[in-house]
């Protein structure tokens, strides 16, 4: 019974971490890119680049976390 409960909490924590990390990487890339666009007057190119790089970084972290979770089983 304790293993099932621990497993449930580990799964909930992992799904929460995946969502937060992916969203924060994408939003962070967009915000930093938007700030740089505003500063340098290059709108919207750096914001789009930041969005893409944030998404790439977020998905990389997602796959890394899922690989870790699969290796635990």
Descriptive report:
- The protein has helices at 2-40, 45-72.
- The radius of gyration is 17 Å and the shape is elongated.
- The two termini are 17 Å apart.
- The protein is mainly alpha-helical and 73 residues long.
- Helix 1 packs antiparallel against helix 2 (45-72).
- Helices cover 92% and strands 0% of the residues.
Helix content: over 70%
Low-confidence stretches are: none
Largest sheet: none
How many distinct beta strands?
A: 0
Structural class: mainly alpha
Order of helices and strands: HH
**Which word captures the global form?**
elongated
Tell me the fraction of residues in β-strands, as a range. Answer: under 5%
From the alpha-carbon coordinates, what is the Rg to the nearest angstrom? 17 Å
Separate helix tally: 2
Mean pLDDT: 88
Distance between the termini: 17 Å
Q: Which terms summarize this structure?
A:
73 residues, 92% helix
Topology diagram in text:
Elements: H1 2-40, H2 45-72
Helix pairs in contact: 1-2
């Amino acid at each position: 019974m304790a293993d099932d409960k621990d497993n449930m909490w580990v799964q909930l924590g992992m799904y929460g971490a995946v969502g937060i990390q992916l969203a924060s990487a994408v939003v962070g890339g967009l915000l930093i890119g938007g700030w740089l666009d505003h500063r340098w007057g290059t709108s919207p190119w750096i914001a789009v680049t930041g969005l893409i790089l944030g998404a790439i970084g977020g998905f990389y972290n997602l796959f890394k976390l899922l690989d870790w979770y699969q290796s635990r089983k």
